Amino acid sequence: MKTILFALSLSFISITTTAHQTNVNTTTSQHLNTSTYFTAEPISEAVFKRMQGKSYKANCTIPRTELRYIRVLHYGFDGKVKSGELVCHQDIADDLIEIFQELYKAHYPIERIQLIDDYNADDEQSMLHNNTSCFNYRRVSGSKTLSYHSQGKAIDINPLYNPCVKRLRNGSTSVSPKTGRAYSNRSKTFKYKIDHNDLVYKLFKKHGFTWGGDWKSLKDYQHFEKK
């Protein structure tokens, strides 16, 4: 598995990181070596310790050796550069690095990118905080089927503004996260909306991902997966 380094014109950059827990870098306005970003690495003991019992549950069937830890830079909603981290399957690591490089160069706004373990692997809590995340060994909500997140081959982008919307048999609509209901009507215009004209959609499609917004049984506007 190759490691891709993203070359920037400056060797150092001022990074502001917003973290949910103290085990994530919380130092603000810190000059960090950019060579540590846009790279894919095996899961270290320190990272695996954060994942155990949370995203990497006791019954997880995905070998740790198949997962990769990715660090990226991105622009937050405040326009400042922030550091982010993801765990994904090795098969899509290069795709994600290249996609996030392009998003970074385009100043594409992503509010936060933290391991879902910072939210105790609680998908709803992660979405409520509009957290972009990837690997989480879990079933699809309301079913016995393992999600593609369980393999680390699916990612959710700005999920609060791009909720999962499902029409129920009784005619009502289920929206996840619940606070994303205001953004479930995709005919409206609002910030951070993913649609067919959005750069995120175009980049993920270019790399062979399927978008949940194109599904028929439900619409998962935050979700991209690659089989």
Provide tags for this entry.
227 residues; Zn_M74/Hedgehog-like; three-stranded antiparallel sheet; Peptidase M15C domain-containing protein; disordered N terminus; Peptidase_M15C; peptidase activity; signal; 16% helix; alpha+beta; 23% strand
Kindly estimate the percentage of residues that lie in beta strands according to DSSP: 15-25%
- Helix share bin: 10-25%
Q: Structural class, please?
A: alpha+beta
Give the uncertain stretches in residue-range form. 1-30
Note the gap between the termini: 18 Å
Overall spatial form: globular
Order of helices and strands: EEEHEEHEHEEEEHEEE
The overall pLDDT average reads 87
Q: What is the C-alpha radius of gyration, as a whole number of Å?
A: 17 Å
Number of helices: 4
Number of E-type strands = 13
For the biggest sheet, the summary is:
3 strands, antiparallel
Strand sequence of the main sheet, in spatial order? 3-4-5
InterPro entries: Peptidase_M15C, Zn_M74/Hedgehog-like
GO molecular function: peptidase activity
Organism: Leyella stercorea DSM 18206
Keywords: Signal
Give a summary of the structure in a few sentences.
By secondary structure, the protein is an alpha+beta fold. The chain is built from four helices and 13 strands.
Overview of this protein structure:
With 227 residues, this protein is of the alpha+beta class. It has one domain (34-225). It has four helices and 13 strands. The strands form five sheets. Strands 3-4-5 form a three-stranded antiparallel beta sheet, covered by helices on one side. Strand 4 and strand 5 (81-89) form a beta hairpin. The radius of gyration is 17 Å and the shape is globular. Mean pLDDT is 87; it is low at 1-30.
